[in-house]
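Saturday, quiet lab. Running sequence design on the structure tokens for the scaffold JK sent over.
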């Protein structure tokens, strides 16, 4: 299924991104099926692509905002609901959550 390239069609996605940006650990949105959750994840990711494309129109290439979305620091993931009843969560959270490093070492 093709997604529209009209930014107005993704208002719900941008509202969820804003909620996630204003939260320390992000948010999650429950869906009745994996297919519904997958479609929502696809819309969220496409909304970011459209934001990046819009930023290329608004800013010159030497501007740090050129080709970027303010939501690029967020990741979108699917996880089954704890009830294991076919429902799925769509998580929108900062990339830093769950990625704590144990150490960094230069390779020789």
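Result came back. Writing it out in full:
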């Amino acid at each position: 299924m093709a997604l529209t390239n009209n930014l107005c069609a993704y208002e719900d996605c941008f509202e969820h991104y804003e909620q996630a940006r204003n939260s320390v650990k992000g948010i999650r949105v429950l869906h009745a099926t994996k297919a519904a959750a997958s479609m929502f994840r696809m819309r969220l990711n496409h909304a970011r692509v459209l934001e990046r494309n819009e930023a290329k129109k608004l800013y010159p290439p030497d501007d740090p905002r050129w080709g970027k979305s303010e939501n690029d620091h967020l990741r979108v993931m699917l996880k089954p609901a704890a009830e294991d009843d076919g429902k799925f969560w769509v998580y929108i959270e900062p990339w830093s959550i769950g990625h704590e490093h144990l150490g960094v070492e230069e390779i020789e």
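Notes for JK: Strands lie at 27-31, 74-80, 88-94. The chain has a mean pLDDT of 92. Ask whether to fix the surface positions before the next round.
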